[in-house]
Structure formats: C-alpha cells, structure tokens
Amino acid sequence: MSFVGWLGQPAVLPWVSLVFGLCVGSFLNVVIHRLPKMLEREWRAQCAELAAADGPAVAQGPAHPRETPYNLWTPRSACPGCGKTIPAKHNIPVLSWILLRGRCAACQARIKGRYPVVELAGGLVATYAAVRFGPTLAALAAMVFCWTLIALTVIDLDTQLLPDDITLPLVWTGLAFNLGATFVPLASAVIGAIAGYLALWSVYWGFKLLTGKEGMGYGDFKLLAAIGAWLGWQMLPLVILLSSIVGAAVGIGLMAFAGHGRDKPIPFGPYLAAAGVIALFWGADIAARWMPLFQFK
Fold first, then answer.
1. Which residues, other chains included, contact 116 with Cβ-Cβ below 8 Å and sequence gap of 6+?
2. pLDDT tens digit string along 96-136?
3. DSSP codes, 229-297
4. How confident is the model at residue 43 (pLDDT cuts 50, 70, 90)?
5. Structure pTM?
C-alpha cells in the first residue's frame, strides 16, 4: 500500500488530521497575534508617505527609526513578557502549555489559555472534516474554511477588524474549490458571494439611514460573501438566521450580566463564522428539515 493510500485509511486519516490541525492551530495563533500588528505598521508607513507628499513643512519632525522586519515568519516567536525566544520543545501544540502549566519557562509570565484553545479548535475541526468527508478534496476544503474562520473570529474579538488580507482570499478560495462543485455548483457559489455581500450591505445602509449610526463594519459584508462563495446562496438565510439569534442572545447576556454598555460595539464576525461552520457540516440537514424552500436540488 502506498503512503498516500495508508493516510486515507479510515482508522488513520482522523488521527493524522488531528495532528496536522493542531500544528495549523499553532500557526493560526501567530496569524492572530501578528497580522493586526503588521497591518498597523503598514498603515503607519502609508500615513508617513502621505505626510511626506504634502510637503516638507508637514513632513518635518523627529526621524523615525527604520522598523525591523516583522511578518508571519520573522522574528521567531518569543514570550511577550521577557522577550526570550520560545524553543521548539516549548512550542508543541496544547501539550507544551499543559506541561508548562500555562506559564513561560523563563519568566513564569502567564500564557493566555486562548492559545491552546485555538490549537485544539484547529485540530478538532480538521478531525471532524476528515471523518465527515473522508479522504476527499471536500475534507481539505472544509479544513481550510474552518481554520480561516477561527483566525477571523479571534482577530475580530481582539480588534473588531476582519482584515481584507483574509476575507478576500477566502472569497476567491471558495469560488476556486467550487469550480468542480466541491460543495455547491459554481453558479450557486457566485450568486452566494454576491448575495452575501449585498444582504449585509443593505442592512448596514438601512440602519445608518434610520439611526445615523453604523451597525456593522464592511468586513462583515465580505465575510458573508465568503461564506456564500463556499456554501452557496441557499445557505445564506440559515447563516444569517443562526448568527443573528446567537448574536442577539450573547449581546443581551453581556448587557444583563456583564454590564456591557449599549453604546459599546459587539463584533458580529464571530457569530457569522460560527454559523458558517454549522452550515458547512449540518446546514443541508437543517435546511431540508426546517427550511425546505432553500434545500439543494
């Protein structure tokens, strides 16, 4: 039996997917931590260029030292408390956090529990995708979709941003996978991308015209467009319904029990992402039972 054939065995594939997903989850933590900082650096550089373009009088001021390279690969991961580089033996997904009891080995600073949670989530969704779809392109596509939504969820919770650097590639990747109807026919995916964007765009402008306030960000439009590109237009009503119910319940709970102010924004991206994962794995069954108008033919 070939190595590829061995990996595709029902008794092997879930375990391989779990290990691979845990490693991807570790990388997702890097993306979650560094991408917003990379974007901030880029925005500062663009502002400096615009200031310089406005003339010497505007551009005058203290010279800024040239920033060291900072991307997803450089520099190596380090403890935010003491700055010491994290060795490979302390960077094993989930296991290292447990063995270190959630603290840095050098300075004993606390390591957020979010890190192993993201790693474990990456492993679990990969395992379930492997079990659900088997050794197919759909399994790999489902993993990519879920991993991306995990990263977007945590970034949105941290910064209330859904970066174009992730949402736009997610749209095109969904369309690319559906060129061969991995989840839905291409026509359904294209309509889903268009309808997903326009649905929340219409809600945004309707709310703004009525209240004069912005009810959501443009990143939410793009995220729903991406979900539509992956799952087709038929799933959009279910995704919107699920995300709205969960978002409303969480928002009411935060205001009632956590003293969350009405004027303090609550990111909507995590609820869209959760609804997207539910729709991916169980959406067809839910739609067939509760929303027959939108079930796939």
1. 93, 94, 97, 98
2. 899 888 888 888 888 889 999 999 999 999 999 999 999 99
3. HHH-GGGHHHHHHHHHHHHHHHHHHHHHHS---TTS---SHHHHHHHHHHHHHHHHHHHHHH-GGGS--
4. confident
5. 0.87
